Amino acid sequence: MAEHVILFTGPMGAGKTTAIQAVSEIAVVSTEANNSERHLVDKPTTTVALDYGEILLDGEEKIRLYGIPGQRRFDFMWAILKKRAQGMVLLVNNDAPDPIGEMLTYLDDFRELYDRGGVVVGVSRSDVSSEPSLAAYGDALAVAHPGKVVPVFTVDPRNNDHMRMVLLALVANIEMRALFGLTESRSI
Amino acid sequence: MTTAAHADPAVIAAASSVLEEMKSVASSLDYAALLTDDGFDVARLPGEIDGARFASMASSMQALGDAVTHELRIGDSEYIIIASPRGYVVQLRVPGHAMVLSALFDNDATIGSALSVARTFVTKMAALLSEAPAHRPESAVASS
Amino acid sequence: MDEEPTPGTTPRPTPMGWAQAAIAVNSVLQLSIPMLLKLELNDHEPLYIDFRHHAFAWSTPLTSFPADAVLLGLQTQPIELDAPLLFDLPGQDLDGLLWLIGTNSFSGARASWLASDDRYKLTRWPNLTQHIHSMRQMHMIAMLGNAYLSSSELAAMAGVEEPDAQRLINALSLMRILAQSTEVPAAVVAEQPVAKRESLFARLRAKLGR
């Protein structure tokens, strides 16, 4: 039975832990610590190792969901987790100073995941900040990764329906990329 | 106005003095650092180790240790030991504070003695922090 | 029913519907000129589109979109970029309306602005958290995101009737997120491992989807 592993990536404060909590069918294992940088990102805690959740399919099959800590100083965890995954949900916060720049940076940092499987980008808090638009994200992706079409959706990480939609789109995209021979073969 | 521990000169000074005293009583201590729960280096002993990276890793270990003990419903993690051919890493929380001591002892020490030393000095650190009014884990105000 | 012909067009023998709206909207988007558009529909308040801001205003919510509405009138008006707003911004995102107009016009036939021999590929995914869609449509979108396919090829691959594939293509074209080409060859499908069980997407969809 193949193991299905999806990684949730993106900068601190984008909603990775929240998103996994929204879709996980088990109580999420999280590793939250007191946030020393409230002046940078205003939340009381931050993930320092990983989040872990699961979606159970029939039989014993499951989809494992891992969330990375967003800050770059934890990139040793990124290296550990990226090896296990077939696909990635990249969350960015539209209210941040340069969400498109952050998206492109994380796509680079997790390039092998993208090449091997697939990515869906989720843009949170677009109700708070309507710019940049999804079209702007699409344009930036077209320049940085010509010929590759990455789904970009607006999402509320707390919204179970949104996060289900994101996961379904990710799995559909991974399977179609494999079907058309666009990825290194590793079945999901 | 409160400041994060790793940016607070009073806390850094206290942490440095604790580590220096620790080194003076434990000759088998190769390296030690005091770090915030979220992986910032407050103070460390000199050495060739990348202090910033080590602090991040130690905070991940601490959080994973707690995750395991909570999953098993056996309480909080009291200490973590990583044993290797050339030494032990002993790690434990500064009681009552969002701070962790992580220390590398060479094989001249026994695990028991290493733990004992580490416990002594996290207790000292806790006492110093409780005296200083500035540092509280729930501090939320920017210092700029 | 009695019908008032729109100024400048020839009278139509059948009632106008979303196809005519789609044609008008497509023309405006293709010209890329700042424009206002007003649609008058039976049993509904008028629908206003301000193409300058990619927004529309309508008292009917999209969740109650009338697939069989009759279009009574259609007026376009070029407008200066800095001329006053027709309605308060942000209004509603035009993409949501384009999705519904596109999937509900032409009755499953090819949109009049599309040529017959083309293959299509997405240039950008639609925002699926905001558009009411089926899982079959998502599956087809994933195909179009990764290969050039004609409507018949898409239908065959997705296991749907060709009109359903065509509706999706019409909508994505209207939303201007579809590239088309007559020259690109048929997509190559990589070799499949022997006798795969139902795909993960199908199993996950059974669990999570609708």
Overall mean confidence score, pLDDT of chain B: 90
Going across the major beta sheet of chain B, what is the strand order?
Answer: 2-1-5-4-3
Largest sheet of chain A: 6 strands, mixed
Supply the number of helical segments of chain A: 6
Helix content of chain B: 40-55%
Radius of gyration of chain B: 15 Å
Form type of chain A:
globular
Structure explained in plain terms:
The complex is a heterotrimer of chains A (188), B (144) and C (210). In chain A, 34% of the residues lie in helices and 22% in strands. Chain A has 6 helices and 8 strands, in the order βαββββαβααβαβα. The longest helix of chain A is centred in the last third of the chain and has 20 residues. By secondary structure, chain B is an alpha+beta fold. Chain B has a 5-stranded antiparallel β-sheet, with helices on both faces. The longest helix of chain B is centred in the middle third of the chain and has 21 residues. Chain C has 210 residues and is α+β, with helices and mostly antiparallel strands. Helix content of chain C is 30%, strand content 15%. Chain C has 6 helices and 7 strands; from the N terminus they run αβββββαβαααβα. In chain C, the strands form 2 sheets. In chain C, strands 4-1-2-3-5 form a 5-stranded antiparallel β-sheet. The termini of chain C are far apart. The mean pLDDT of chain C is 89. The chains are: A alpha/beta (188), B alpha+beta (144), C alpha+beta (210).
What descriptive keywords fit this protein?
heterotrimer; A: 188 residues; alpha/beta; six-stranded mixed sheet; two-stranded antiparallel ribbon; 6 helices; 8 strands; 22% strand; globular; C: 210 residues; alpha+beta; five-stranded antiparallel sheet; two-stranded antiparallel sheet; 7 strands; 30% helix
What topology does this entry show?
The complex is a heterotrimer of chains A (188), B (144) and C (210).
Chain A: E1 4-9, H1 16-23, E2 32-34, E3 45-47, E4 51-56, E5 62-67, H2 75-82, E6 87-93, H3 99-109, H4 111-116, E7 118-124, H5 134-144, E8 152-154, H6 160-179
Parallel strand pairs in A: 1-5, 1-6, 6-7, 7-8
Antiparallel strand pairs in A: 2-3, 4-5
Chain B: H1 9-25, E1 29-36, E2 41-44, H2 51-71, E3 79-84, E4 87-93, E5 99-105, H3 111-131
Antiparallel strand pairs in B: 1-2, 1-5, 3-4, 4-5
Chain C: H1 18-31, E1 35-41, E2 47-50, E3 55-57, E4 71-78, E5 92-93, H2 94-103, E6 119-122, H3 135-144, H4 151-158, H5 162-174, E7 178-181, H6 200-208
Antiparallel strand pairs in C: 1-2, 1-4, 2-3, 3-5, 6-7
Helix pairs in contact in C: 2-5, 3-4, 4-5
